[in-house]
Design a protein that fits this description.
Number of strands: 6
Largest sheet: 6 strands, mixed
CATH class: Alpha Beta
CATH topology: Rossmann fold
Order of helices and strands: HHEHEHEHHHEEEH
Strand content: 5-15%
Structural class: alpha/beta
Bound molecules: iron/sulfur cluster
Strand order of the largest sheet: 3-2-1-4-6-5
Number of domains: 1
CATH architecture: 3-Layer(aba) Sandwich
Radius of gyration: 17 Å
Distance between the termini: 19 Å
Helix content: 25-40%
Number of helices: 8
CATH superfamily: HUPs
């Protein structure tokens, strides 16, 4: 991607440091036209709802790893019904889960970094190569690794602008938005899953620990390689 786009992102990062979510998304729609996509893990539709207000036919990226809970797939399909104008882009690995397991076994148990690379990092990179910006729901309170997330940044790994409109939101603000706007939520949230990823790698967080502590619990891994 061009040096110009990187410089543009770095300048915008300072200018939009205190932007609201609505301002950040309006800026994204204004500057990137059709060339931006909203990433969702289908834990809820907060970010999708916010983005659809500035672009009802926005593209939504879902990493269809093949290892999701049925409730997550159900949430994705419900999102498509509630927001009929948007396009859900299902990013998939080259190998099916069956072929991967036949060739490598259960990588999510033996080599989760490799599994995430094949089923998340590569499909994400391939999809993002078609856009100039992506929008994520990363929040600073998610985990210590995310405590300094800016609203706009340059994503060097994937070569495009990354916008995090709800980075400053507290859990209370986030939950209030869901309640006030009747936003779709993955039914697993009400069962205590506070950060939902692939089924084999997601557990409920222990009391007093951050929401992402249930991801790859006991494996010493905290991120998929998407936002690190
Ligand atoms: S979260 Fe688990 S199952 Fe999903 S891609 Fe990563 S290692 Fe594989």
């Amino acid at each position: 991607m061009s040096t110009d786009l990187k410089e543009f992102a770095e300048k915008a990062s300072a200018e939009l440091a205190d932007a609201t979510a609505a301002e950040a998304l309006a800026w994204t729609a204004e500057h990137f036209g059709e060339s931006w996509i909203v990433a969702s893990n289908m834990q809820d539709a907060v970010l999708i709802d916010l983005a659809a207000q500035v672009k009802p036919d926005v593209d939504v990226l879902f990493l269809e790893t093949g290892y999701h809970f049925p409730e997550t797939i159900g949430t994705r399909d419900a999102v498509a019904t509630v927001y009929p104008k948007l396009t859900i882009v299902n990013a998939q690995a080259e190998q099916s889960v069956a072929d991967q397991e036949a060739e490598f076994g259960l990588l999510n148990q033996t080599a989760p970094d490799r599994c995430c690379f094949l089923r998340k990092v590569v499909p994400l990179r391939q999809t993002l190569s078609r856009y100039d910006a992506w929008v994520t729901g990363v929040r600073r309170v998610d985990a210590p690794t995310r405590a300094t997330t800016p609203i706009v940044q340059w994503d060097d790994r994937n070569g495009l602008v990354k916008v995090n409109p709800i980075a400053p939101w507290s859990d209370d603000e986030f939950n209030a938005y869901i309640a006030d706007h009747g936003i779709l939520e993955n039914p697993l949230v009400s069962e205590g899953y506070l950060s939902i990823g692939c089924a084999p790698c997601t557990a409920k967080p222990l009391p007093g620990q951050d929401a992402r502590s249930g991801r790859w619990a006991g494996q010493g891994k905290t991120e998929c390689g998407l936002h690190g």
